[in-house]
Amino acid sequence: MPNLKFCKMKIIKAPYKSWGGIHPRYHKDLAADRALREMPLPELLQISMSQHLGAPAKPVVKKGDSVMQGTLIGEAAGFISANVHSPVSGVVKDVVPAITLTGAMIDSVVIEPDGEDKRVNDLAPLADWQAVAKKDLIARVAAAGVAGMGGAGFPTHVKLSPPPDKTIDTLIINGAECEPYLTADYRLMLESPERVWLGVSILRHILGAKTVRIAIEDNKPEAIRAMEQAMRNADGDVAIVELATEYPQGAEKQQIFAITGREVPSGGLPMDVGAVVENVGTAAAVFDAVFEGMPLIRRITTVTGLPLNAPGNIIAPLGTSYRALIEACGGCADTVKLISGGPMMGIAQAIDTVTTTKTTSGLLALGAPDVSLYESMPCISCGRCVDACPMNLVPSELSQYLEAEDYEGAEELHVMDCIECGCCAFSCPAHRPLVQHMRQGKARVMLKRKKK
Amino acid sequence: MAEAIDKQDHLFVVSSSPHTHSGASVKAIMLDVIIAMLPLTGAAIYLFGWNAIRLLLVCVISCVATEAACRKAMGRNAGIDDLSAVVTGMLLAFNLPPALPSWMAVTGSVIAIALAKQVFGGIGYNPFNPALIARVALLISFPVAMTTWSPWIMAAPAAGIDALTSATPLGAFKSAIDFGQTVPYLTNSTTFMQFFVGHQNGCIGEVSSLAILLGGLYLLFRRCISWQIPAFYLGSVAVLSTLIWAVAPDKNLPPHLHLVTGGLMLGAFFMATDMVTTPVTRKGMAVFGAGCGILTVLIRVWGGYPEGVSFAILLMNAVTPLINRATRPRVFGTGKKKS
Amino acid sequence: MDMLQFILITSGAIALVGVVCGTALAVAARFFAVHEDPRIEKVAEILPGANCGGCGLAGCTEYARAIVVDGAAINLCAPGGNEVIEQIAAFLGREATAAKKMVALVLCGGNDTQAQKRHAYNGVADCTAAQAVNGGDKACTYGCLGYGSCSRICPVAAIEICDGLAKVHPELCISCGACVKVCPRNIIKMVPADAPVHVLCSSHDKGPVVKKMCKVGCIGCTLCTKQVENQAITMDRFLAVVDYSKETPGKAAAEKCPVNCIIAADDSSSDAQPEVLQNENN
């Protein structure tokens, strides 16, 4: 690596203005100043085999097996899938189907920790990663079970293996964290910017991307400073992009547009415009997997919400129950709605015994005053959803098509391009469940396409 | 899962995302519109006195009562708490001449709510602006009462406008042109300001452009209406009337008088901006506004009626679905970028 | 005179237009006629004309065409029943193979008073939509969600939602099967209208789990299987399942069922489907 010590780190404004968007109340102050901390080990961990997008992993342990920290307990089932490892040393109590945060019944491995944290060293640290072949690095990322930590949980090794006809020239590291309430990525950038930056370097090396952009919203100046400090020795076309604070600046397509001006084509992937977007948490996980040989077995979860006594940013092992997380943050009695993730795109939970996964960036408890209910009032055609939609859809018209179950009409109006960001439903004065309509429409169109 | 339910003392609310809301509501929007109409109400009462109070009360009460009765007859919940019937009632009152008998106002209110709104399914489903449907229905049913303009309760205004006590400026102008007479107020330099503050004949809510502008600015400030409709409406009226006036200045009103006479201001800020009956896209709103403006001028200059705002807006209401269809924005990631 | 002329010209013009149009139509009818098997029309007339789609084709005329042209089976029309089959058979000279009258049945008895909720659902009132949001709001993952997707799709309004539970009125059901297809939990089944016994539960959960979630759910106790002959009720993963091909009276089984999720026709009555909700107060 050429030594360019005097190459000054650049901080640039986002050159393009993405479309639509909203300005919700962020409530980030609840947890922003709470330093990362580990929580006491729960009595039981219930690790779902569906930690990621794609096929659930296949359990490879059985009742009674003893496991160590880092033991493979679930094997990737197919290409778009990811390995799952034991976060603790202990004994497998059971392998049973259990309700996941999406409400599906998926095989889960229940482990009773022994509290000794003995670690298995299946993966050797690769401190000299620049000398390692790219495909071996990708194999390492896959072996460590790294999946997108931003929320969707797309297996990272898949993103790192674009087909040969696609050239990736831009690597975007997403530290926007535009979801209200959440501060997990913010604390990570603040407290371990070096891990993030080294992870970014590895990703950049694997992809061979010329340009690297770290995207951070301009409401997080401390995070920008911390990252700048960590990246002071960076060489080449590397810059931090200050995004305007607006939801959904963290959405993949919107972020690529704001930074490069390129539109991911309808139905396409970021790699179609030569870009790959990875979350800052993913970058840190890649660092852990390569430098330390540590698989992805825990993550930062922002446990927050106005009814909570002591919100915080918790480093919790995978499979920690939501109830344990809430108790680690002082508990709360008045929760009316419990959300896995942020308030805009998170998933409302029916029970608090559901456990964390690689995608649990936040756990949000909403009290009665924060919960607004959906009604089925008719659309008054105010057009606010049209103004808010970052994809330039016409949600009001679409939802009327979908209410009438005209799925072909909805498909023509590009319902499949909906990113479910929630801007439309957020701004709807009639409180119509627009996103739910879109989801239903997308599901029906998918079903129809599969049949063909 | 069964155990989990046992331990929880109440059920969590579960819905599709998003789980937070801007706080906007139909009721809040209607309340804003009512607030925006307060200057207008004040002006109407100041200019027309008891008649304005009477018409406003009659229209609002009968609109709300009709709404409640219709909802009950259809077996739905009352649904009057969204205040939309109050807004319709006020707008209808503003569109009536001051001396109109109360029973006609009641008839108009019933038409507005029952015929123009509830038969289509209530709020959100009506294709036409209910207040305007009622106004046009009254205009056709009771042409004399609907065009009988009484003078204001105040002292007679400046000379030159006295002659107009029996007609609106637009009506007087039209008949003057038809009979080849001269129009007195055209030469008076203070006419514009007189008309602007409301010293002219007309419906109780349309005369004072000043009060309407105040309310319109409030609506814009509260983002209850978008700037496109009033801007393109007034803009197209100004441009088109300037062109026509430039061609034949002695046979046409100058553009600045077009803007402050008749129902144009009220239409541009309060009637053509009715959310339900206008397009949802910004481009569509611009097209809608421009269309209203062009039709208004066409009717005023060449039509049989001296005033065309109501008809223009209703005609554009009819093509709103088409405008929506034609002005769908380009979806992200489709087609070529313009820049 | 003028008047007379006027009338004459007018009538003449109208008569001329009539002659020209009539000729054109006659010519068109002759040259553009579509030759279709006249039997199709006749069969379509015999069919009930409900256009329910239960036969799998888009409406009665399509089915008539399929019968006449493609030789499709003539017993696919559920609403028509045996009468229609016989008429078509007689008309086309085919053999009448009687179809059993089938009706839809919701295999769940857990209404809002009997069955626990898992969460308070807020959103689109539709079963498929509710199911997609965290798996549906009924604690039992097999139970009827009660948001009426079936009742809305039913062409003859034979399905009613009572107290959060869908209930088919068998006397109205035309056996089109639309509800069976739309139910996201697959708990509506077509059953013979004269079947003597039904198990109104679809839960494969173990007994203790069921008991916590629903008062009328099958707990897999197997008592019923011992009350009937020739295995008319068998156990399938903790759920009693009726084999409708065996017409065994099930009154004893219904009486023995500790959770009252089995209903049986009265031996004296021909109505095979007692009120689903009669268990409500047990």
How would you describe the overall organization of this protein?
The complex is a heterotrimer of chains A (452), B (339) and C (282). Chain A is α/β, with parallel strands linked by helices. Chain A is built from 13 helices and 18 strands. Chain A has helices at residues 134-143, 156-159, 184-191, 193-207, 221-230, 252-260, 280-291, 322-328, 384-388, 395-403, 407-412, 423-427, 434-451; strands at residues 10-13, 36-38, 45-48, 58-59, 66-67, 72-75, 84-85, 90-99, 105-113, 170-174, 211-217, 237-243, 275-279, 298-304, 312-317, 337-340, 347-349, 362-366. In chain A, the strands form four sheets. Chain A has a six-stranded mixed β-sheet with strand order 2-15-14-18-16-17. Chain A has a five-stranded parallel β-sheet with strand order 1-12-11-10-13, sandwiched between helices. Chain A is globular and about 60 Å long. The relative contact order of chain A is 0.15. Chain B is mostly helical and 339 residues long. Chain B is 58% helix and 1% strand. Chain B is built from 16 helices and one strand. Residues 267-282 of chain C have low confidence and may be disordered. By secondary structure, chain C is of the alpha+beta class. In chain C, 32% of the residues lie in helices and 12% in strands. Chain C folds into two domains: 38-92, 3-methyladenine DNA Glycosylase II, Chain A, domain 3, CATH 1.10.15.40; 102-277, Alpha-Beta Plaits, CATH 3.30.70. The longest helix of chain C has 30 residues, at 2-31. Chain C has helices at residues 2-31, 38-46, 60-69, 81-92, 127-132, 149-153, 178-182, 207-213, 251-256; strands spanning 102-106, 120-122, 159-162, 165-168, 188-192, 197-199, 233-236, 239-242, 262-264. In chain C, a hairpin with a 2-residue loop joins strand 7 (233-236) and strand 8. The chains are: A alpha/beta (452), B mainly alpha (339), C alpha+beta (282). Strand 1 of chain B pairs parallel with strand 2 (120-122) of chain C, so a sheet runs across the interface.
